[in-house]
Amino acid sequence: MSLEGKVAIVTGSGRGLGLAYAQELARQGASVVINDVDSAIAADAVASIEATGGKAFAVVAPVGSTETAKLLVAAAVESFGRLDILVTNAGVLRDTVLWKMTDEDFDLVINVHLRGTFTCVREAAAYMRENSIAGRIICIGSPTGQRGNFGQTNYAAAKAGIVGMVRTWALELRKAGITANAVVPVAATAMTATVPYFAAAVAADEKDEAMPAFFRHDLGFGTAADVAGTIAFLASDEAANITGQVIGVGGDRLQVWSHPEPVVTEYQDGGWTYDALAARGPGLITDNLQSIGEKFPPLPEELRPAAAPTA
Ligand SMILES: NC(=O)c1ccc[n+]([C@@H]2O[C@H](COP(=O)([O-])OP(=O)(O)OC[C@H]3O[C@@H](n4cnc5c(N)ncnc54)[C@H](O)[C@@H]3O)[C@@H](O)[C@H]2O)c1
């Protein structure tokens, strides 16, 4: 087992992707601190790991605050003696278009995803540095953070912010041998179950049937378990030289995302005044427009939900 003797925290691991990550880390030999706001699913998650001979301990507390971050690191150290791996996965959605999004919708999503990632990583990194542990920080992004998505102002801000923090932490933690990477997952979970475009894939998953190849291959959309191997690999000693990266994974597909780079660099002596831009700028900019949002291919006829329009 590749993670024998290691100790991991996975936030939001009562169900969905977090549960799959926790189970795979345990399967690879790590002891796992389960975290969720729902005590019943947290207890079930612990029981599922113990049933297969693994070690797990639940901390029921909402990620976001420094207090919860401290509780999680303390639980890892008190229950299992150390902390090697942190996966910041806890998340909520409050989707609506910009002009209808309330301050509460915005603050809640930012608090759980962005602030929760910041507070937990700060606590874990401080512990790892103090104890000379070459730890693994794995933060969870989203295609929405990479490209934007209709109705997800709050979520896009949080997920793009997480990737920005990961790049910064990879620089700051390099000397300590701690890696920081982001994983951009796509999978059938409660979060994606209501999207009509994925209905045929979610239905297959619920019946424990294989998902159609169109989803697994063409869209990179599979089960939560499909993402878990990448998390365990990034958590292992084998991934010591991988840091500051954004890895997309889902179904049969793995992607390495680029970081933003200028696609055009031009100079104007004396600077880019309005007149200089009006003379030279339109071509420079409009000839190089970048895509926004994710473009899904049309669903094959047989995979279309009966009454719902395709995405
Ligand atoms: N499902 C996908 O395709 C997909 C795609 C991109 C990103 N993600 C990201 O993956 C992560 C997991 O998503 P999922 O699809 O498994 O969702 P999910 O809703 O099934 O699971 C999220 C879990 O987090 C818990 N949670 C919510 N708020 C919390 C808090 N404050 N503290 C602790 N736990 C909390 C929930 O109770 C739940 O168990 C999220 O960060 C999500 O944004 C998912």
UniProtKB/TrEMBL annotation:
<dbReference type="InterPro" id="IPR051687">
    <property type="entry name" value="Peroxisomal_Beta-Oxidation"/>
</dbReference>
<dbReference type="InterPro" id="IPR036291">
    <property type="entry name" value="NAD(P)-bd_dom_sf"/>
</dbReference>
<dbReference type="GO" id="GO:0016491">
    <property type="term" value="F:oxidoreductase activity"/>
</dbReference>
<dbReference type="InterPro" id="IPR020904">
    <property type="entry name" value="Sc_DH/Rdtase_CS"/>
</dbReference>
<comment type="similarity">
    <text>Belongs to the short-chain dehydrogenases/reductases (SDR) family.</text>
</comment>
<dbReference type="InterPro" id="IPR057326">
    <property type="entry name" value="KR_dom"/>
</dbReference>
<dbReference type="InterPro" id="IPR002347">
    <property type="entry name" value="SDR_fam"/>
</dbReference>
<feature type="domain" description="Ketoreductase">
    <location>
        <begin position="6"/>
        <end position="194"/>
    </location>
</feature>
<protein>
    <submittedName>
        <fullName>SDR family oxidoreductase</fullName>
    </submittedName>
</protein>
<dbReference type="Pfam" id="PF13561">
    <property type="entry name" value="adh_short_C2"/>
</dbReference>
<keyword id="KW-0560">Oxidoreductase</keyword>
